[in-house]
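User: If you would, consider this record:
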Amino acid sequence: MRTAGTERHPAGGGAGIVTTCGRRIAVRRLRLATADRPISRIALDVGPDRGGEPGTWAALTAGEARDLADLLLRHAGQAERGAEPAGPAREAAP
């Protein structure tokens, strides 16, 4: 069951969601034109919360974005089943 809506932004080619705690998370492709070769990244922008606390952003390589997607999917499945995450480091979400 989804608890947040998905938004599409055709002009920027990105998409985003608004979480139940009010943060907007946007995902876009970032292209930087350089003289020798273009650089392509996936930009992840976590906006401010309802109280105005600032958000953050990250620029990920395609491989890093896939690794993050894999982690999110595995943890989502574990959360749905009520299982504990595997591995030594389990941090609480802020």
